[in-house]
Amino acid sequence: MASNDPSDTGGLFIGRRPGTGPVRYRDVKPSSEKRRRYDRWLAHALLALELVLCLSLFGPQPLAWLWIGSQVDYLTGYVTAGISTVMLGCLASLMLTMAAAKRVDHAWKLVRRAAGHRQEQGALERIFATSVGVAAVAFTFWFLIIQGPGPTFAPGN
Amino acid sequence: MGFRDYYRQYDDLDERELNRDRRARREREKRLALERLPDLDLSGTEWPDLPHSEVVNAAIARARGLVNRYPDRYAATVRRQLAERHGVAPEQIVVGNGAAELLQAAALVLLGRGDELVMPWPSYPLYPLLAAHAGARPVFAEPGRLSDAVTGRTRVLVVCNPNDPTGDYMRSHELGAVLAGLPAHVHVLLDEALVHFQDEEDLDACLRLVDAFPRLLVVRTFSKIYGLSGLRAGYAVGSDTDLLAAVAPVLGVNALTQAAVEHTLRTSDDEIDRRRRVVSRERVRVTEGLVALGADVTRSQANFVWVRAPGLSGDALAQALRRQGVIVAPGGPLGAEDHVRAAVLNEGATNRLLRAYGNAVA
């Protein structure tokens, strides 16, 4: 009788290590075509929401915290308080955003399965990497073309 | 079904849920494995447990040494240890490859074509073969009347003490009387392979007779209570140095066996005492239990009992016990068709044997 109990096998693990097995989920009876069409639309919407959440980390959120930090600086008269607010605020919203994105990603995975796809993994990693790429391109465009790095490269600014 | 519940049914199965069926199946298999008792083999007379790991280590350590050289052909260390133990001179001891080989060598030395080897019967089935190999004739005697079977052609009297398979023990004064009455042309081979299991008298009571009777050769083994059957080690004690030299193996005993025996003689006395006590206690329990169930049981002094079930042949009793998961040795090949020999091991084995016997004769 096969066993992966090390006490039965002279200390050796036989077979797959815990936590490395393939993803398994219930074999649910397929829903109607109308419902699956709706689920596909919902999955696209959730994916877009994930992308928006990730992109917000590279522009809107830092800008928002810079504005809040400037207000704290203005109201308290301490630059340190303003900078600290920006740093801690960015960090907190990053973690909250990623937690929210993870939940959305899990929901997306379930909706994709409901739509009839064999969806084993979420898309958050790829979405995050894509958003980093989009943010990098956007920043480069703004920095080099719109704002310009300095008078030598763009003497008109 | 609610909105969230609809999608939750597509969620991953966790390990616990995934393995629920497998765990249930494994539990069933474990339960069945625990309920099923393996057969209990009581047909042999060797010790059932593995030797102490240090004894095995001693042999392995020697194997990793100079095994390209010949071993000490005289096994001087083992002989010195045994001599101290028995209170004899080392020259009175030879070490051989098991008691059987020493007995065979002695038979070849002492017997010639047409001579007779007398033995009580039933007894150890090897003895008639000893005579046959030496070209002699085996003579079966009534236990207790050995001297009556001795004739002018008798050269050897072999006594298994305690006797296999009956477990009878001949005390030293009885043996002394037999020895004293034998003519000068008869040697006695005393097979004490099972002597450690007797509790009637001192362990060396019969062995000490070698000083008074030069024609007595006592043979012992490390295969029974010492549990080293696979290493083939035994020794002979006597006072006829010519006979001892003649029965000794030509190039001695292998180095691994010598190492294991040396170590076991140094370290195993407590364990041997424990085994003796266990067998002695369980032998009483088995005997009394079987007698209470109507069996005819000899008062054994060995690590087995010799049993007869009234109305059943030995084969029938052995088969009935086999169906109960207990394997015993049928008495036919051992000298009595209506008996079986059952080893005495431990409390659990005793309980199973008694239960099986009760069911077999019910």
What would your notes on this structure say?
- The complex is a heterodimer of chains A (157) and B (362).
- Chain A is mainly α and 157 residues long.
- Chain A has a domain of 97 residues.
- Helix content of chain A is 64%, strand content 0%.
- Chain A contains 4 helices and no strands.
- The longest helix of chain A is centred in the middle third of the chain and has 36 residues.
- The termini of chain A are far apart.
- Chain B has 362 residues and is of the alpha/beta class.
- Chain B folds into 2 domains: 102 residues, Aspartate Aminotransferase, domain 1; 215 residues, Aspartate Aminotransferase, domain 2 (3-Layer(aba) Sandwich), CATH 3.40.640.
- Chain B has 13 helices and 13 strands.
- In chain B, the strands form 3 sheets. Chain B has a 7-stranded mixed β-sheet with strand order 2-8-7-6-5-3-4, sandwiched between helices. Chain B has a 4-stranded antiparallel β-sheet with strand order 9-10-13-12. In chain B, strands 1-11 form a two-stranded parallel sheet.
- In chain B, a hairpin with a 6-residue loop joins strand 9 and strand 10.
- In chain B, helix 4 packs antiparallel against helix 10, helix 5 packs parallel to helix 10 and helix 12 packs across helix 13.
- The termini of chain B are far apart.
- The mean pLDDT of chain B is 94.
- Chains A and B meet through helix 3 of A and helix 1 of B.
Short description:
The complex is a heterodimer of chains A (157) and B (362). By secondary structure, chain A is mainly α.
Secondary structure: elements and pairs:
The complex is a heterodimer of chains A (157) and B (362).
Chain A: H1 33-56, H2 60-76, H3 79-114, H4 124-147
Helix pairs in contact in A: 1-3, 1-4, 2-3
Chain B: H1 3-8, H2 15-18, H3 20-35, E1 40-41, H4 53-63, H5 76-86, E2 93-96, H6 99-110, E3 116-120, H7 126-133, E4 137-141, E5 154-160, H8 172-181, E6 187-191, E7 216-221, E8 234-238, H9 241-247, H10 255-267, H11 269-292, E9 296-297, E10 304-308, H12 314-323, E11 326-327, E12 329-330, E13 340-343, H13 347-361
Parallel strand pairs in B: 1-11, 3-4, 3-5, 5-6, 6-7
Antiparallel strand pairs in B: 2-8, 7-8, 9-10, 10-13, 12-13
